[in-house]
Amino acid sequence: MASFDNLLYDLDAATGVLTLTVNRPAKLNALNAATIAELDAAGQEALADPAVRAILLTGSGEKAFVAGADIAELAALTPVQAAGASAYGQRVFAQFERSPKPVVAAVNGFALGGGCELAMACHLRVAADTARFGLPEVSLGLLPGYGGTQRLPQLVGKAKALELMLTADMIKADEALRLGLANHVVPAAELLDFCRQLLAKMLSKGPVALGLVIGSVNAGYAPGQDGYAAEAEAFGHAFQTDDFKEGTQAFVAKRPPVFQGK
């Protein structure tokens, strides 16, 4: 396993849930270039490791999930470097979005700018009741650069997404839930336990099928792809799997299935 300076990488061998924690509490877990590179490496490692069945992504401390990008570092970039940094961050975050293993964000505090973008790249977002969301980049004369202008409209609709980005408004967890930006809001003390229970429910299902669902949904939002065609192809693929045979046999026998992820 790779070693990380700005991330905590904690795999529960019994459940297969990897808890990946952005660990820069003194900087409110702000994303600098080194942290984004570590998220890239950690994501690649998690996706390649068969022992990792799901990813729980959170931030260190009680104040912030990720409170944005490292502004001082950004301010030193040239326009060409900034465009490159944006494209790289988009690729890193897309790695989590495209993961065939479920990825849940446990939003334990401020999820602003790049932090909100990172949370949106996860498949689900569970927010502590103390969490706050926002894309305030226009306050700095910038715009979201890690996929926020694309993912926020998908989650809350174009008009509301534009309002949030153009006003730089920060919203509370209950408003994020109402808009569809958060899937659940729970007391802060219960956040990680709730997320682990949610992942346990998912991981009791067919692992191959979980990945096929994620891939089919993503295909519907990808330029140039036909989501319906992707679904049909995935549906046919599922029929070739041992998990499908086990699931149907268990259903007929009225017993819990024992999936092997094959």
UniProtKB/TrEMBL annotation:
**Keyword Cytoplasm listed:** no
Q: Does the keyword Lyase apply?
A: yes
Highest taxon in the source lineage: Bacteria
The protein's matches in InterPro entries, at most eight in alphabetical order, are given as:
ClpP/crotonase-like_dom_sf (IPR029045), Enoyl-CoA_hyd/isom_CS (IPR018376), Enoyl-CoA_hydra/iso (IPR001753), Enoyl-CoA_hydra_C (IPR014748)
Which keywords does this Swiss-Prot/TrEMBL entry list?
Lyase
Q: Which PROSITE patterns match?
A: ENOYL_COA_HYDRATASE (PS00166)
Q: Name one GO biological process term.
A: fatty acid beta-oxidation
Query: One short Pfam family name for this protein?
Result: ECH_1
* GO molecular function terms listed in the Swiss-Prot or TrEMBL record: lyase activity
Which family would the database say this protein is a member of? Belongs to the enoyl-CoA hydratase/isomerase family.
Protein name, UniProt field: Enoyl-CoA hydratase
